[in-house]
Amino acid sequence: MASPKIKMLSYKIHAASSFTENYPPQKILQNRPSDASCRWSSDSNSHPQFITLKLNTVSIVHQLTFGKYEKMHVCNIRKFQIYGGLDESGMLLLCEGDLRNDSIPETFNLKTMVGGKLFPINFLKIVPTQTWGSSFNYSIWYVELSGTDDERTVLPVLYTVASFRQETAFRMCLKMFRDMGLDECFETLQKNVPAVSLEHPFLTDLYDAVVKRGAFEEAEILIDKAAQNDFLKSITAEQKAVPVWTEILPGSGASPGMRGGHQMVLDSAAQMIYLYGGWDGARDLSDFWQYDLLRKKWILISTDTEQEDGPSARSCHKMVIDSDNQTIFVIGRFLDGPARTGEPLKNDFFMYDILRKRWTQLSSDTFAEGGPKVLYDHQVALDVLKRTIYVFGGRVAQGKPPGSTAAVDNAATSGLYAYHIPTSTWRRIEPASGSPDSTALKPRMGHCIIFHPVIVLVQYDLFVYLNTRSVDR
User: Fold this and answer.
1) Which of 128, 146, 333, 442 has its Cβ near the most Cβ atoms within 10 Å?
2) pTM of the model
3) CA distance 25 to 22
4) What is the enclosing helix (H) or strand (E) of 321?
């Protein structure tokens, strides 16, 4: 049989929670976007406020369209819910959504299937839950319904609904008899209506084990079997995820030793973690490791990256990974007092190509190219789409003349810089501490930054959280 034709459905206003004198719910039957008075307006913004529509014929409603006023309006609905059913007491949620505050009509698809069967309705209830203006009453300007009322589609479904209601009533009786311990009544009804079972046999076995016999160990075995057979999949899918810490033990193979001031990045697609450098309590490290999350195994990529044209041993540096292009970037390092004398301090910058297993020095002195000075305890973030690395804050490693016994100055903090990977160019966005340039984003260290692209709005946000802006704090 051909699919039924979708058409506009007729309805009338059945009920409303409230309305103001000049804005009754019947106004939504007319689509007059230039008429400011052609709307339903509730008499209150207390929840729940609603309009209930009654279709002229029981139908399968596919879509609901909200018409709007020609201008933005503070009373326009921002969030709403739509319920439907054959009667007012048994409505199901068919749609939940958001409306824009503009003059363009919006159409929403309604849920048409319940339990794998088409769901006919006679009543439809619109419940606004938020307006665009704070504490204003709700307004609806126009509502149009579309679907099918073809008897060849609706009547067979009505029979299915009636059968479903009857089966549900039988199950409720079976449950009540069992809960009350009326075993004879339970068995009699089950014998006379063999086509209707109370529940899945697993649940019956579980009830018998727990309630009747108190066999809790047997119940645990039943639940384990049910989980293994994906019987509980629909239930577990609805549960909120709970993070659980799991210790990653070194195992029998080689693994990184104890350290601090190291860096790790995650390639979520490849399920790989990369670890580089750090300080073991006596010296800076230059070893480079990979951890396979699937195989639960550490792999030593390099014992000394400096011998492979990579960065020298270091700690308090930062790394960021570009998973799409399979590259890792390393910038910054801590230099103790003796390392800050002699030659002018330079901030090197490296890239590791994961596929080619090769290091490339992108810069021997980023400051000379418009980037940051030597820095540590900074933060980095990557904009994958624009292929830009952001480097913000951290301590600037200050040099001192040879033979000087003066204390090393650790007060200076770095600003915000952007590195464009395709053109290998730096751009300063916010100045470092002590700069006369005015800035809203103050330099800092001990902070966190996260890059979040909002593609739909073509908006890019860089979040900065917490800071320490002086040695004293």
Assistant:
1) 128
2) 0.52
3) 10
4) strand 318-322
